Amino acid sequence: MANDNANTTPRTLGVAGPEVFPLGLGCMGMSFAYGPADADEAAATIHSALDSGVNFLDTADMYGDGANERLVGAAISGRRDDVVLATKFGILVDPDTMRPRGVDGSPDYVRAAVDRSLARLGVDHIDLYYQHRPDPAVPIEDTVGAMAELVTAGKVRHLGLSEASADTIRRAAATARIAVVQTEWSIFSRDIEDTVLPACRELGIGVVPYSPLGRGMLTDGAALRNLSADDFRRTLPWFDAENLTANLEIVRQVHAVADRHGATPAQVALAWLLAKGPDVVPIPGTKRRTYLQDNLGALAVDLTAADRERLSQLRAAGTRYPDMSWTERDTTPLPS
Description:
Helices cover about 35% and strands about 15% of the residues. By secondary structure, the chain is α/β, with parallel strands linked by helices. Strands 3-4-5-8-9-10-11 form a seven-stranded parallel sheet, covered by helices on one side. It has a two-stranded antiparallel ribbon with strand order 1-2. Strand 3, helix 1 and strand 4 form a beta-alpha-beta unit. It starts with 10 loop residues before the first strand and ends in a 24-residue tail after the last helix. The model has no long low-confidence stretch (mean pLDDT about 90).
């Protein structure tokens, strides 16, 4: 990294979870959802991340219907010991549209999914295995019980949940050790702060914010008005024309803070999250080395208390998904 003042002290995810670099790398966009893919640049970005000390890589079986796991697996071949590797299971994909069509949290699905991910990644274990979304039809105790079997079998080291409700998190943690909860959290997305974050801290569970840059709001700026036809952000309320105008005003205010620190808006947004506590490890996603290095510059940004408070007052226009039932999901209770 260019700045010698960067704080690169490792952070531990959860009471007994993995130790990782303060920023991870979200790999989804390298092969899914954010326009045309460039496999060579994606691999170069992963190598650059590892060379810079970033050891926490995040993927999922649904990203490109397995393509992203294969890409990540190929990129880390020969460097497996340098990586804390996270992937996810559970979201079912329509092969014709590549869009989610449901969730399966059944124990049989858990057991089959992990073997498919191990094969695509080309590894003998996964460091952090998430349920991508809780299945409302399956008690979380059943799903997490099957996940815990994978730890015993040596296929998985640590367990996580993504976009689970506070109640589901508590029930899961009563069944097996949950190291991490991953959920969207950024200056633009704040709902985690109401119930999920307090539950995680009560239980000693680490927090991994995905989309910490507001799905590109803080990197692409005005270019967001001209997204490619296959960019899934076209489906998100934040990017509707009216909401986008309001949200770019938020970006302008983040720019004002960034200018005072000689930083970029993305660096300020990440610094804001990093300041939330040592149990927080954001995973900004990028498929380009240029943005990766810009993100790493956040580790050298020291926001004042006034900066943090000002940024915390900002609120996005529109919801983060058109169907918010995909967030903070509950599962059916066990039969009494």
